[in-house]
Amino acid sequence: MFAAIAGAGVLFFALWWMLVTGGDEAPWISAGLAASVVLLVSLSAREVVMRRAWTRYLLENGAQDHSSRVNPDPSVPAQKTYSSKAHTANLRALQKQSAEADASSRPELHLEIFELCQNFLARTEEALNSNSLNAERRSIFRAGQERARALEKHHMLTWARESSLALTHEAQRRARTSDKIETAYRALDCLDSALKVFPTESELNASKLAIWEFIASVKVAHWVELAERAAFKGHYRRAINRYKDALFYLSRDTVKDEVRIAGAERITREIDLLRERIKSSHRPPDDSPSTGRTEGEDVIQ
User: Fold this and answer.
1) Domain boundaries, the chain
2) Of 143 and 58, the one with more pLDDT
3) What is the pTM of this model?
């Protein structure tokens, strides 16, 4: 905060001097607004950081009562005890953080809540495995465990869904084929991370299949475009080879049967047409000596 105040002061005087030299009638207003924005952003960032730090502290240390309250003698081995009130307070803090993550549009917040849930569950499991809980407190810890597990699954699935969807949209906006595929693979990495925790989740598997289909469509479209360019220039044999590459990726990658069949039929028709053009041609279509006709005439013929 000291650095933020100092930076706001420097910004205020710098803008004030620039506006004075520029002939502004009220330079202190604009400079003051800019400095105030810097201070407000710094205060907001500090509040978020402190709140997360406090939540992590509660989840890591709040469920355990210090043994010095029970046994002040340091020579006697310490025995852990667990408080149901601290457990409930930790769960409320976790639920509050969960609600804030749901209200936010940042997918990485859901991953942070997932990690907090894992820490909470580890502490709860440690308490349940101990012999210091009576029946009533054990039921409280088990109820909190079930709620934390539900939050853990919710935030992991939400993070995987939103992150993979954002990366897929980014891949669609990319211009280069390699960039499209690389970004799509990053989306697959997000889904794979979630599948390691929840391997039987149908939503994750369906999203993964959709991304594989997108990657296959990008590869096929790339080779089809190269084939069309070669055919337009009269390089029919080269175009046939490019179409065969497209068929290879169409049959190799994960694509729906109806899409694969329709695409294969279309590419096969184009290959047959190019072979007919090669047969009707009186000269080799690729890299042959000029016969006086232009490339455009060969394509038309």
Assistant:
1) 210-286
2) 143
3) 0.58
